[in-house]
Design goal:
single chain, about 425 residues, alpha/beta, Metallo-beta-lactamase, Chain A, Serine Threonine Protein Phosphatase 5, Tetratricopeptide repeat, 3 domains, seven-stranded mixed beta sheet, six-stranded mixed beta sheet, about 45% helix, about 15% strand, globular, binds zinc ion
Amino acid sequence: MAQSREEEFQPEEARDRAMVDEEIFPDIFKIAQTWPVSGPSGLTITGEGLVVVDTGVGFREGEDRVRKIRERTEVPFHTIIYSHGHVDHVGGASAFIKDAEDRGHPRPRIIGHELVAQRLDKYRMLKGRRAYIASLQFPRPQDRPSARQDWASVREPSYVYPDTTFHDYMEFKLGGLTFEIYYAPGETDDTIWVWIPERKVAFIGDLLLGGCPNTGNPLKEQRYTLEWAENLERIAEKKPDFVVGSGPVISGGNVEERLLNTSRLLRYIHEEVVRLLNEGYWIEDILERVKVPEELSDKPYLAGNYGHPTFVIHDVYRRYTGWYDGNPSELFPSKGADIAAEMLTITGSEKVIEKARQLQGEGNIQLALHLVDFVIKGTEDESARSKAMLLKADLLDARAGEVRNYIAGNIMRTSAGMLREEAG
Ligand SMILES: [Zn+2]
């Protein structure tokens, strides 16, 4: 494998800066994540209390952020703001509340969009599924995910729900600064961003990720491609001097370029998918036909390292259509295993495996994957099946190196591990 998972996630320079705290003003900071794929916290120190945007992925990361903040100031936490309800933004809140309790400070207020509560309820309802897909998207070395694991019995995370919510807009003043909070669906339906006009600083959560926006994540629900583009434009209209998103702080001339080019990418894909839908195309053809223009695809900050243009296409397609793929054979389909077994009665497993190996040798890894699937699904010969599973595991590792996308690469490599385990 040419690249490690961390290198896939962010280019080296951005990764190094993402993992350190940054001072924007003497009283405004980005407090870095300790888990590489978490979002950072924004910290504003005022004489009347601290305002923190986002809290880290869990109690331990929240605690780490509190410790770093306490090295700078003893001022009580006044307000915690959730940029959105993703776990790496809300999960550390209990550590901030514990700090207030331990110090005898009043409990900080928690501001979030009115839809955050619904999201957290849904997370609790789907906790087993979420644990399973997290083991695919964010595998830890100690995890050995398996589809048959007892995911439903995983421990339920404890979330701190917002106590102050709003619909479109709210603002408050503290210590001489104004905090304007705007609703801005994008990565989620509960995304907001925070603007401090006196300092021209915007805290925007995951609306900028240091790569292609993460709309259309293969494991997750519908996202909001067009609204995301529109909201980036609204942020740009404020002409921020500093933007705190996920990753390093963006400043100066980079701010407008990144906001507007990211918006252009999303708008371009949205318009292309809509055009092709109106021309009568289905998903397979749309995936083939949408080509991102080079002046956008060559920008490192739009790279498909986490989100990916292909995922964005899926997002827009799902937004406006049903699950039908254009082939009526698939409306009430036979089991994949039965189809594959019929194919194997014609060719036999050995020939298929041989052809897959030939394609592998020619560098056509993706096509080889489709062929070995026929054997894995269709054969009753355990030794042929094991051979095909081991070959598929090698193909998946190779494909992960080709696609250079953190999410897809992790799914492929984790699945490769599961196949090797099953094949013995
Ligand atoms: Zn997020």
